[in-house]
Every structure is written in structure tokens, then in C-alpha cells.
Write a structure and sequence with these properties.
Length: about 475
Amino acid sequence: MKADFGVIGLAVMGQNLVLNVEDKGFSVAVFNRTAERTKEFVENRAQGKKIVPAYSLEEFVEALTRPRKILIMVKAGAPVDAVLEGLYPLLERGDLVIDGGNSHHDDTERRIKEAEERGFLYLGVGISGGEYGALRGPSIMAGGHREGYELVQGIFEAIAAKGPDGPCCAYFGPGSAGHYVKMVHNGIEYAIMETIVEAYDLMKRGLGMSPDEMAGVFGDWNRRELGGYLFEITERILHYKDPETGEPLVELILDTAKQKGTGKWSTQSALDLGTPVPTIAMAVFARIISAFKEERVVASKVLPGPDPALGTDREEFVRRLFGAVYLSVIAAYAQGLRQLRDASSERCYGLDLSEAARVWMAGCIIRSVLLVPIRKVLLDNPELPLLFLAEPFKSAWAEYHGDLRWVTARAHEHGIPTPAMDSALTFVDAFRTERLPANLIQAQRDFFGAHTYQRIDKEGTFHTDWEAVA
Ligand SMILES: NC(=O)c1ccc[n+]([C@@H]2O[C@H](COP(=O)([O-])OP(=O)(O)OC[C@H]3O[C@@H](n4cnc5c(N)ncnc54)[C@H](OP(=O)(O)O)[C@@H]3O)[C@@H](O)[C@H]2O)c1
């Protein structure tokens, strides 16, 4: 008897996806480059399940029903190409290869062309939800050959998280559409995480609150308009005590964060597109600065700044901090969705943005109650330039922008960095400004480079000999 589905790569994500697929009634053939890992898996977690181990790619391919449906879950980058190189000579026309890792969209475009030339179907699929999601129900963002998606739609819908509006999986379009949506998902994730840590820093250094007290605030927000996974885990992290010392574990963790790639790629792609994602970009830069630990320690001793203690009423500050965080989180979604809109028209993905909001409602890291109104807005007006222009986000801006200004002003006065909140505020302020000072930029460019400029009082392109005028 041959297996319905195949998985290559048995690290944490691969193993959990195999168990999830098997749990939904499908048999799964598995292969991993290092045989020990396969052996360990079949002898432990895969015991008694419809899971067929293979110790060579030939054996693995042989074990699958046709057309073969093969999910690759290995480290992104060169390892994916290494697997494909070994796999392609063994496949037959019409077989489907799915890359479920966090591959760069340009790599996915190239690999789809290569697969096509060989007569294979190919999907680039973003899978979010971490190891728990992979096992219990991830959010699945697929792109590539539609016929390929149809072959696995049943399996994907069975294993995906179940959201309020259906299984959290969708086909987003041709080429790298799925990996692109996942990349922007991760960019939004960076921005929300940075916003949360800024609120934590303000409460900790600014108000002197304990981790348990801060957990209470995040828990309250999580039960209100900011309900979502990242707020939920922040509450739990802040309550967690180190078993060894009894101290809050978070305070024993080194203050340097890594940025693995997708946040950076999201920002790089936004720059290429000319689409503004300042809150996502600032979140990436904040992690980069955090990594300069030794330099920060030196600078902390030589560069003076104000006392971080805010000296304001705690209750009032926390109340207004909610508004600041709420708008910054909306700004993160607004920027990411705008990027998807612009990428879709530039790269011809034909993305349905409301589907992105639907698929992000459960299973993934950025799941949030906010995605319900976001989806509704996008269904009503798919071409909306910015979420803040539609209700309920228009009213949210009107109600809370004063809080965002007040909180960031206090942060600046007391030397506590809030790059995500600052960028959310200045982004919307720039967006809602009828006349920005870019007229002076045009004049400067024309002065030093004869780049020409447009005028507001007449049509045409102009150049001035500024030196002569001066
Ligand atoms: N971890 C997460 O929470 C998460 C969430 C979403 C998406 N992802 C993405 O999912 C993918 C898998 O993630 P992961 O954390 O489970 O594993 P990982 O640590 O990214 O990769 C380890 C797997 O890649 C295999 N591998 C590495 N180089 C290889 C090569 N040259 N040829 C063949 N196989 C090779 C390893 O095989 P050996 O055992 O032989 O070394 C192992 O199976 C990645 O793209 C990751 O970015 C991860």
C-alpha cells in the first residue's frame, strides 16, 4: 500500500506536520537527509501510525501514490535546492512538489520555472504557527500552480487551523504569491512584537511595574480589542518564574534579539516596491540595534539622557498606553496589507486581501480579533489605500491618536525608545497631510542635480538656475 502524502525534512516543523496529516486519516511517507533523525522519529512519535519511513530518496518516491504530493520542510535557501536536485530525476510528469519552508520569493519564482520545464507542479507555501501550529493546525498560505493546490486542498483544509470563517488555508495566486503573503505576515509579526516590547519597556522602566503587574495589563488588553496570540503569550511569559531561581524568567534573558530574514526581506521588498512599511522596518532595525549589546553598554556610560521614570499617574498612563498600542498594531496590519496590495499589482499575483485576513484569523502568530473587522473592510473595499480610512479604524484613529501622541511624547522626554509607536504615528500623520514639505526636496534636487520639478500653478516640468537666482 502506497502513502497519500510525502514529507522530506523531519526537524520540528516536518515531524509535527507529518503527525497532523496522519491524524486526519492520510498515510505519510517520510525522509530526512540524516537517517538517524528518521529512525528516531519512527521509533518514538510515529509509533503505531500510518507513517512509512524511507532511507533513500528512491525508496521515498517509490512509496508514494501518483501523482506524488511531496512537502519539503528543510532549512530555507541552498538546502531546498539540494533536495530538489536529488528529487527531480526520480519524479514523473504531473507530480507535485511543495516547499513549505520560509523561502525567499525570488527563489520560489526560479524554482517554479525549473519545475515547469521538467513537467512537475510546484507550490511555494508559507506555514505559520510554529511547532504547535504545525501539529494542531497552522495557517497555510499557498501559491504556485493552481492544479497543484487542487491536489492537496483536501489535505491542507483538514490540517489547517479552523477560524471563524473556515479553515485557515488559501491559494493566493501564481508564482511566489503564497511565500510573499507569509513573508509580509512575518513583517507584521515583527512590528506587533516591537510595539508590545515598547509598552513593556515603558511600564517597566517608566512606571516601575513588576512583570506580574505588566502581565495583568497585557492580559486585560488580550481580553479586549487587542485580543490575539502575541498579547496572550506576552501575559504568560511575564507571569513565568524561572524554576531555578524563582525570578521572572523574562528578566534573566539577554536583551538581544535575532532577525532571521523574513522581516528584513519584507522591508527590502517594500523598498523595491516603493511602499511604506516604516513600523515593520523600525522593528527590524530595533532588533539589529539590540544585537549591539557591548556597544550599547559602552554608550550607556558616556551618552547622557533623562531619568526614565515617567513620574505620571500609573493608571492614566496605562489607560493611554492602550490607545498608543492599539493604533500601532492597526498600523502594522495597515502597512503590511498595503504592501500586499502593491506587490500584487506589481507582481501580478491577483491577491484577495480579505483572504489574507481570513487565513490569519487562527493558527498563525499574528492572529487577532482585529482581523474580523479588517476582513470586513477589505471585502467591502478591496482597493482601500489604508485601513485607517474605513470604519471602525477611522474612529479608532480619531479616538486614540491623542493617546499615541501623548505616550510617545512622554517616552521621548524620558529617553525610552519607542520606534514602532513613533513610526506608526508619523506614518499616519504623513499620510493625512495634504501638503508635505517634499516641495523643498524637489527644489533641493533641482538645485544640486538639475533633476527638474513640477509646479502647483501650471503644468509641465521646470528647471531653475538656482545659483543665478541666488
Ligand atoms: N521552526 C518554526 O517555528 C518555523 C515556523 C514556520 C516556518 N518554518 C520554516 O520551516 C522550515 C523547516 O523549519 P524547522 O525549524 O523544522 O527546521 P530547520 O532547522 O530550518 O531545518 C532542519 C531540517 O533541514 C534539513 N536540511 C538542512 N540542510 C539540508 C540539506 N542540505 N539537504 C537536505 N536537508 C537539509 C535537516 O536535515 P538533517 O536532519 O539531515 O540535518 C532538517 O531536516 C524552514 O524553512 C523554516 O524557516 C519554521
